[in-house]
Queue: 2 jobs
Job 1
Amino acid sequence: MDVDTGMETGPVTGQAGGPDAGGEIAPPARRPRVQKNVTTALGLDICSERYPVGTALPKESDLCELYGVSRTVVRESLKILATKGLVNSRPRVGTVVCDKAEWNLLDAQILEWMGPRIQDLDLLGCILETRRTVEPVAAEFAAERASVQEIADLEAAWKRMHDAGPDTEAFTRADVQFHEILLKASHNQVFRQLSSIIHAALMYSLHRSNEVIDHRDEALDIHRDLVEALRLRDGAAARAASHRMLDTAVRDLAPALRGGRQDADGS
Amino acid sequence: MDVDTGMETGPVTGQAGGPDAGGEIAPPARRPRVQKNVTTALGLDICSERYPVGTALPKESDLCELYGVSRTVVRESLKILATKGLVNSRPRVGTVVCDKAEWNLLDAQILEWMGPRIQDLDLLGCILETRRTVEPVAAEFAAERASVQEIADLEAAWKRMHDAGPDTEAFTRADVQFHEILLKASHNQVFRQLSSIIHAALMYSLHRSNEVIDHRDEALDIHRDLVEALRLRDGAAARAASHRMLDTAVRDLAPALRGGRQDADGS
DNA sequence: ATCCATAAATAGTATGACTATACGGGAAGA
DNA sequence: TCTTCCCGTATAGTCATACTATTTATGGAT
């Protein structure tokens, strides 16, 4: 993140940059690239429910003032957010925040913007269900289809987990990479698209579990078994290892999933 | 589709609309809304490999002339395409088409733009694998979680299939809707995001299978069994019905999947 | 031959003006 | 009084132009 996360809305550039009044020598007029900052700021404000679902954002000209940028930048940012399903613009009505059912949950940026709020809407539960459904199959496919290089990459990721030692952060990072490589090695393009959401979920859940040393040792063993199964092209073993992996995830996440499943959609 | 599909690139508006030369009474200057048309045209041209992966699109000012629109429209269209992972713009370099691995395959518009080319990259095979992985689980979840309304909607979709008679088109439409409602009834938000891709794949594959009367009768039976299982809240039966459904899909699509799996990614 | 400065090309930003669209209220009609 | 239609108005959509930032390519100096 190269943006001030958590910042309140406000000028994105240090230079207010109003029209250069007077016929002076025209000071150079700085024009930094602020598109990403504005998009991120708006995305964060939407995902944090600062602009709740169904309400309208300030009109474009107001957003220009708020962030101190031109309408060009604001409009292009809104177009990006609209493409992600976050908002919907209509003349005379304004730009309204879409229902969460329309949000593109597989979008990495949205998940980043949601941050800890990923726990809303049972999202963590949904993702865990998806992992339990998809990952064992992906592991089985990977056993058949993974290239030698991909298996080596998996082993390298495992080694990074192993060598992380007491560094929980590094351990989690390697763990996430492991699962991304696995999805890729399944050679199913749809599965690979799920990487982003699994990435986000793991970053917010693995970290906790991985703080327990015992758990990390157990995870290391299972991950190694999976790599070994891929090397032997043993689909059943790979599937079994993946299942074990997810069972421990369920066990460790159970406390965080309290509250049962509610109807989260607007039907 | 409210756009001239298959059209070559060219002015999107009938009115060339150059700058009104002279100090005349300023003829009204038509300004139709052309954003969607331009985006669609560019999307089609990219997905049809008119602009192959890795190559650069014409520069923005050229695109303005090509489509007879302002740079604003072109830029916002490119921003949309960039958000979908189709292109990537950089100063001095231009706007280059991204590798297909970065395309957002879960995006309904992209799938629409790909049209029959959905068969490239083993996409049809990947989607079928995904369905076989996800749909039975979704059916099982739906058995537990579907609302009465959702089950009624499923039954209504089934009835539309039943009543379609010889209208293959209507039958396929209802069939697709059935599967979308099922995914929604699983009350797993990630599963629901898969609707778009399953929708596209079914529209391009079911149509063929559904032309055979025998198959349609069989499909009707299985779909009814699934609804019945949901009504009885029998997860195992729902799962079994879904499995049977997909087995017939595999059987019917087998001819279209010849050629085996190749490595489609650029690793 | 290598490296650095300069130039050129292209996307990014800014501004102001106009148009199309859709909501809301008021007038005309039942 | 209620309904329908029209029109004013607010807001996003489009257009044109000018300028800035960034990156590649070129050419010259070491």
Note: The longest strand of chain A covers residues 87-90.
Job 2
Amino acid sequence: MNKESGGRRVQATMTSLEIVEMLRELDGARVTELAEALDLSPSTVHTHLSTLVDADYVVKSGDIYHLSLHFLGLANYVRNRRNAYAIADSYTDQLARETECRAVFVVEENGRGVYMYTYSGKHAVWKYSTVGKRFHLHQTAAGKAILSQLPRERVIDIVEEWGLPAGTENTTTDQSVLLEELEAVEERGVAFNDEEQLEGVKAVGVPVDGSDGRVVGAFSVASPANRMTEDRFKKEIPKTLLGVANEFELENSMS
Amino acid sequence: MNKESGGRRVQATMTSLEIVEMLRELDGARVTELAEALDLSPSTVHTHLSTLVDADYVVKSGDIYHLSLHFLGLANYVRNRRNAYAIADSYTDQLARETECRAVFVVEENGRGVYMYTYSGKHAVWKYSTVGKRFHLHQTAAGKAILSQLPRERVIDIVEEWGLPAGTENTTTDQSVLLEELEAVEERGVAFNDEEQLEGVKAVGVPVDGSDGRVVGAFSVASPANRMTEDRFKKEIPKTLLGVANEFELENSMS
DNA sequence: CCATATATTCGGTAGACCCGAACTTTATAT
DNA sequence: ATATAAAGTTCGGGTCTACCGAATATATGG
């Protein structure tokens, strides 16, 4: 009874949101383009666009329509909705600086991971490019860190909903193996990703809990495998991460 | 022919978007709450919410509905849509560190300013709280910096659309005075805000132009008036800002 | 200046949105 | 435990509207 269960939907809203997504995908578009891409009449698209422009979700320059900066405000809201999310930002940055690796803070939503903050140690090239992107929890260090803190029945629900697709040949694709791994993660307090999501990328993750004991998210630090010595991977980075997680939980508990 | 001109709108989309805005305003809500707040029947609200949940714009936990992290992805897209926006981030951060003040990067959309990045020099308290917020261009240093780079007829259009409301008794509320001021700003390359938006807050702003010569946005640095000496306000901060704007334009032109 | 393509407006109808009522579930109090 | 209430959810039906297609306006290039 999970996905798209029974009830009714508002067709017009779905159309408008499809236009929004298509505007992102096409990086701005004209009426006709959208009409063709979505198999709608231009007049229909035009009416939807006018509505979205009025509501400030879309801007029109010439005949090209683009998503507006209104989404910045909405994103800012969802990011700061929980105090824990707000303070995670600077810790992620700190992690990236200390380790000189890519550091991220991720949370779980609907059984999947979402990148909330991403910082790179050195050059800020693809600094923000993955913010908001979703990923499979079982493929990453941060994801497994989060899973380790969830009730096992919830983990099983998530596996049933999203499956255990492989990212590389190292990905854990068996449920019982995953569950055993999560026990180990819970024990250690640290999760590892040994080229399980992407070839050549290793990562370490730690969960962070709220004052109610429930997991809020996870930090992780990733690096190209060839720049990551075994000692750094298994000792040094985990230690840094656990330290930051502790600081975070302390600050978070004081509010 | 500007605001809500003639044409038709999609009523259902407007309703869905009102629900989205209301979810932000109420910081999450139940069906009945929304129905009362928007004067709709609970069944109608329920159908809209189901649609939004399916589309991943809203999440449901228990009987409470919240905006989802999907907006992070959309915001990330609009932020990185223009390369200039993407690289402005680290310069804003740098400004905040160098000046130990609050530094922001803003752009213009539909005749108003939008905060795109905001950093505080010291403690990260309300670090992100204004991202995405809109403001009147004539009341701020960054806003006037942007206006100074726009064709004067465009400025007049903007004034006609949004007026010149006062934020404090120092706000420029007369169009011809504003236009004169913009000439001075263009000459100097720097704009000042002498407690014109908020009592007790001074700021300095500089515009940044794209390689096509059109303004992309503006940086500004703000500080409590009593911590800002005349020399810092009129000399030191402007110099820092102009330097950063130059670096920015250089990097931006190489892509 | 004409030809072409696209944006926008507008009439009419098929169909969907909205309400209200019935039903289900969850919470509270006796 | 049971009753009572309140909220969430489903579903039928009527009205309104979202959609299309054609006509008109606007922009582009030959």
Note: Chain B touches chain A through 62 residues (CB under 8 Å).
